[in-house]
Each structure stands twice: as structure tokens, then as C-alpha cells.
Amino acid sequence: MGYVAELNTGNKMPVIGLGTGAPAYQYEEIKAAVGVALQVGYRHFDTASYYGSEGALGAALTEAFQRGDVKREEVFVTTKLWDDEHDDPPAAITKSLKNLQLEYVDLYLIHWPLRLRKGYTLPPKEEDFLPLDIKSTWQGMEKCFELGLTKAIGLSNFSCKKIEDLLNYAKIPPATNQVELHPMWQQKKLRDYCRKMKIQVCAWSPLGAPKTPWGSNVVMDNPVIKEIAQKHGKSTAQVVLRWGIDQGVCALPKSFNKGRITENFQVFDWCLTAEDHEKMSKLEQRKILRGEDLVNSTTSPYRTIEELWDGEI
After folding, report:
1. Which single residue of 57, 65, 106, 257 could bond 76 by disulfide (Cβ 3.0 to 4.6 Å)?
2. What is the rounded distance in angstroms from the CA atom of residue 66 to the CA atom of residue 80?
3. Catalytic residue chosen out of the listed positions 42, 50, 51, 302
């Protein structure tokens, strides 16, 4: 299983997971990738209702359970509440569980601190934004936990300030916060705060999401990281993922290529040096997915990018 992180619930989460954020039409490709990942040793799979990949992940896991390749309790599955589902998290997770063919997930996250109306289109228009009430949404998430539909609840794309606000009223504290995090956006303040509050940080797009509409090649093309990879005889992706693990972060690389799925898991039997970490700590920082589409001066809860991230940008 490789390394695991212990959540504040006592549950253990493998620190490398397979991300499945891909269009639903890649059903067979996703299903095959999950099968490969299970063979390689992955036991953590990340999806979301918004990704449209819950069905493919569920089918692959069900087949693996039926073959006896792996037991349900050996696999950690995360899914997420989308922006138009805040009114009723228990109904949303029930739908996700049906897609996943599971009785429970291991972790259920609020995907974004944002609420949109049903039938919205992306990017959201002014009329698509609804008033945000995270307190009410979190109570719905707590209900999902109390009903046994998830073993843990958490957040995604939340700043330190938004977490702090939520902790003022949460009966059940969040177990994780899943955010953009990689050597070009290291989020030290957020990592330090979450460590203090016993909230595990997970990295979506830990390689910078090259070849996606929202991503960039800035991480994978970085000359400093490439040089470190060459020195160790490792791939750039392996160095980036190892860096994340060394920061105490759980990383969720997405790949549907057998070679890269295998390579991304081979990060446990070697180390980066203190000098490598020193060099990477000095890289210029810039967030890739900034969320410009989520702000406006009228209906969004966030008037500016700075408000969306509470200045942590």
C-alpha cells in the first residue's frame, strides 16, 4: 500500500491515489486504468460527481471485489459534493454511492466553497450563483457521516480562513482539505495551518495537470525539477510526487497510461536530498487554477480572486 496518512478519524489513507477527473465518455479508459492501478498496488481512488467517472470507477472496483483481487475495506474511495448539490448532501452522496456500487465511501468532500443553481452552465453566469451557506452544507455533510454513508468528511479548495470559520460551528471537524499543491504552488501557510488543526492536506493535479483545459506544463517543464530528476535517474513526475509525500501531503496524480500509472507509484523506495528540497523551496510560486470564472461583482459570494482565496494567492 506504500505510505499511509492517519486521518483525525483514525482511518488510514494511502498517500498516493489515482485521480479520475476525466470526461465521462472515457468510461472504458478509466475502468481499465483503475484495473491497472489495482495491480500496481494503488488502494486509493479519487473521484467526484462532477467528473462523471464514478460509474467507471465503481464498475472496475466491483469486478476486482468479485474476482477476490482486493477487499472493499482495503480500498480508500473519495468522492465530492458538487456546487449544485449543496441543498441536500445526503441525497447527493446516495446518488454517488449508486454510481460507485458501494455502500459507503471513505471520504466525502465539499468540492468548492460555492453554490450554483441546478441547470447552470460553465462558466457560470450571474444568474447561476446562489447565496452560500457553508454552515448548512456542513450540517448536511455531518448527516452523511452520521448515516454511515461516509467514513470521513472534508473540504476541497478551502483557504485557512474558510476552514477557521467552519471550525467555529463544525460538530465534526473536516478530516482533509484537497487543494492545488505542487512545487510551483507549495501552500506552506495552508499546510502549516492544517497540520496544526489535524487536517490532512491532499493535492489534486499534483503534477500541474498538463494536457488539461485547466492545467499547465509549468511544473513538468521546470528546469530545476528536471535536473533533480536526472541526478536521481527518476522521472520529473516521480520527483514531484516524492516532494509532495515529503511535505506530508497526499498526492492524487491522474493518468490513464499504464506506464505512467506504474511509474507514479514508484516513489517509496528512494529519497530526495536536503539540497533537492532547498532548491525546490526557492521556485517561483504561481497558482495555475485561479478561479476567475467563480467571481463577479454582483451575485458570486466572491467579488475578487483575492476574496475567493482570502488573500492566499
Report:
1. 106
2. 25
3. 51
51 given a catalytic annotation: yes
Q: What is the pLDDT of residues 143-164, one digit of tens each?
A: 999 999 999 999 999 999 999 9
pLDDT in tens, 226-265: 999 999 999 999 999 999 999 999 999 999 999 999 999 9
